[in-house]
Write a structure and sequence with these properties.
The chain is an all-alpha fold. It contains 3 helices and no strands. The chain has helices spanning 4-22, 30-155, 168-260. Helix 1 (4-22) packs antiparallel against helix 2 and helix 2 packs antiparallel against helix 3 (168-260). The longest helix is centred in the middle third of the chain and has 126 residues, at 30-155. The protein is rod-shaped, with a radius of gyration of 58 Å.
Length: 261
Amino acid sequence: MMTLRELEAVTHAHRNLLHAIRQPREGMTDDNAEESFSEAERVQGIERHAVQLESENIALREEMAQRAVAHREAMEGLNNKISKLMEELEAKGMEYTETLGKLEEFVGLLEAARAAEKSALMALEKREQELFELQAAHDEEMRELESAMKGLDGGALPPQGGAADFPAAEMQANTAVADVDKDAVRTMRQQLERLKREKEALVMELEVKGRQHEDALNVLNRNIGELMGELDSRIRGCQVSATSAKELLHDCPAALRRGGK
């Protein structure tokens, strides 16, 4: 291709040549005339070439303008996709954080239920120990009472002379001791019955709490399972979004190169 300076020089020569041709032809030889016509044809060929180059330049400028528009539209599309992906990633991150918060809340409820169950078991064990100790004390007192009663029965046998020979004061003392022992036995039995009723109530309460705890545990496990499934799904969604964003960012240079060609 010819440069702009060369085209200007050729145009200037063409003008000079046309000016010379328009001058009177006196004194021109045939060789000079033929040379002038050859030069004129060469200049016309250069002009045609220049017109063709100008047309090509116009077409190239139009193509460059179209590619610039396409490049701008491609960049806008890529930026929009990146913005949407970033918004989606942010939303997934917030959902992920919210799910973790719910999971921590359910874990806290589960730990509280286990602590309540442990406390109930400890209270039941304490009551059973108290009942065992009272039962042992009652048994010991009953043995002592039976031993004392046997001793009283053996010492209260009247001599061969008859009941009239038995001292009246000793009989009254034995009767008073027997009454005291009966009151003690009755009190111990009442206390033992009360402890048995308390034990039965505690056992029933423990069974109710155990069922409630088991139901709550099943609900918590089910909710935790659902939350873990939802969490896995959201994590996979975040991974897919991140992969799409990486692929889009990886494709940006290629798109820019295509738009710049």
